[in-house]
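Worked Example 4.2. Consider the chain below.
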Amino acid sequence: QVQLVESGGGLVQPGGSLRLSCARSGSISSVNLMGWYRQAPGKQRELVAVIIGGGTTNYADSVKGRFTISRDNAKNTVYLQMNSLTPEDTAVYYCRYGLYWGQGTQVTVSS
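Applying the procedure from the previous section yields the following structure tokens:
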């Protein structure tokens, strides 16, 4: 059974940084997409950053230059480094491996 465990969320001031982690347990035969999505109150879930196929990355325009997605295949973990955070980044962040989703971790950017 595949499980995704996210960590690293929390409360941070504007301009601050956080690093999210998503550790996967259980085997998946093949994954052609992994990454992060987010959902703010009253809004639809949206893509933040993903790794596609062999390693191509794709970012939402709103986070380009501020967020970086990476992975450690040996640890079955995908990361999201978030810098220069703004209140507009406040949301529940969800990890995704193929068809599997994590439970979400809250990120709140507020002074």
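The two ends are 40 Å apart (CA to CA). The CA atoms of residues 51 and 57 lie 5 Å apart. Compare this with Example 4.1 before moving on.
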